[in-house]
Design goal:
Protein name: Transporter substrate-binding domain-containing protein
Structural class: alpha/beta
Order of helices and strands: EHEHEHEEHEHEHEHEHEHHHEEEEE
Radius of gyration: 20 Å
Strand order of the largest sheet: 7-6-8-9-10-14-15
Strand content: 15-25%
Number of strands: 15
Organism: Bradyrhizobium quebecense
Number of helices: 11
InterPro entries: AmiC_PBP1 (IPR039570), Peripla_BP_I (IPR028082)
Distance between the termini: 48 Å
Pfam families: Peripla_BP_5
Length: 387
């Protein structure tokens, strides 16, 4: 018998400045959809309706409206940048739909109509900054894309660094897709900062990484680069210049868990032996499974019932145990730190002892208390809460 079909929207840019990551999200989401549709565990099939906003921010509103009005979807997976998520947010709230957002993001948001599957700032920014303060420097040079993720990530970084009596040496911003990076690289070579924090997105980041590597090598400089977003497919795009970047993430291909080894094997069988899953793509895969399991448990696609069914349900995903905190709709994840190598992979050198609850507003942060056993920064009243 044919299973009943549930329409699900998938929004990710296949063109534009961050098309590479949009394609990775789509590949991972569709892999999960196909797996679920083949499993007897689920008494329904997911019908994926894919939309490509082409990296144009206003188009996210348009395609989301189309999916809701003309297709009748109640659940949407996707959006790579916070700028795109904020285009979709008013529509899903007004029409009472549910957006399953896969990407790591800057925090300081909580909506009943969004499930935040990617890392919160206490999962990636805090472990990275703590590592830098303890092991590298109390001075950081920041370069990033001119939108909300960089603004808020830099703000949190600035608060943490200044509380440790350090300082941010500069904050240089480029428009999304901007390739003119020479002036920033020249400044870095001239000023010789001890570390550079890269929050550029898409093609801007790849151009910067290559130019940064060439210029610092020519000048005989060894300046570590930091990231909360760089992933394996991007290492391949940027080439050998990407080696040595210290990255904070909940997922790396090199995680030695049986669930991840099986996932990577399935991925390579589907997409080629030399391909690699990305962190946000893997989160899209997790999002589809969290949604499917919640749909099965709820016995309906009604978002209120699905949200209740999803909360607290543990899923042993490729990145490790993941579940949704019902108090804020963010996922419990395991933070990790790794350094990129010349083979286009990451060598993990630290991970939390156990999955860490999401703290999107950093309400539990106490800088004065120092690092917790798991390495995170555990109520700092001077950190401003900004919506």
């Amino acid at each position: 018998m044919t299973k009943p079909s549930i329409p699900v929207g998938i929004i990710c840019s296949q063109h534009g400045p961050y098309q590479a990551m949009g394609r990775e999200i789509l590949k991972s989401a569709m892999m999960a959809v196909d797996e679920i549709n083949e499993q007897d565990e689920f008494d329904f099939a997911i019908s994926a309706h894919v939309r490509d906003p082409r990296g144009i921010i206003s188009e996210y509103h348009t395609v989301c409206d189309d999916l809701i009005r003309n297709v009748g979807v109640e659940h949407i997976i996707g959006c790579y940048t916070s700028a795109s998520r904020k285009q979709v947010l008013p529509i899903v709230e007004r029409t009472d739909r549910l957006l399953w957002y896969p990407a790591r993001y800057e925090g300081f948001e909580c909506s009943d109509n969004v499930i935040y599957v990617g890392a919160s700032p206490n999962h990636n920014v805090l472990p990275l900054v703590r590592y830098v303060l303890d092991n590298l420097s109390r001075e950081i040079f920041c370069v990033g894309s001119n939108y909300v993720w960089t603004w808020e990530t830099n703000r949190v970084t600035r608060e943490l660094v200044t509380a440790a009596r350090g300082r941010i040496l500069a904050e240089r911003l480029l428009e999304l897709g901007e390739s003119a990076v020479t002036h920033i690289v020249d400044e870095i070579v001239r000023r010789r900062p001890p570390v550079v924090f890269n929050t550029l997105v898409g093609s801007s980041s790849y151009d910067f990484i290559r130019a940064f590597h060439a210029a610092t090598t020519a000048a005989g400089l060894d300046i570590p680069m930091l990231s909360c977003s760089l992933c394996e497919p991007e290492l391949k795009i940027a080439g050998p210049a990407s080696a040595g970047c210290i990255t904070s993430s909940a997922y790396f291909e090199s995680i030695r868990l049986p669930e991840n080894q099986a996932f990577v094997a399935r991925w390579k069988a589907r997409h080629g032996e030399h391909s690699s899953p990305s962190v946000d793509g893997q989160s899209a895969y997790v999002a589809v499974y969290l949604l499917a399991r919640a749909l099965q448990r709820a016995g309906t696609s009604d978002i209120g019932e699905v949200r209740r069914a999803a909360a607290g349900h543990r899923y042993n995903s490729p990145q490790g145990p993941v579940w949704i905190d019902g108090s804020n709709n963010h996922c419990v994840l395991t933070p990790r730190l790794a350094v990129s190598n010349a083979d286009g992979q990451f060598d993990i050198f630290w991970e939390a002892e156990a999955p860490v609850k999401p703290d999107p507003y950093l309400a539990q942060l106490d800088i004065a208390a120092g690092p917790a056993r798991d390495g995170t920064l555990p109520n700092a009243p001077h950190l401003r809460v900004v919506k």
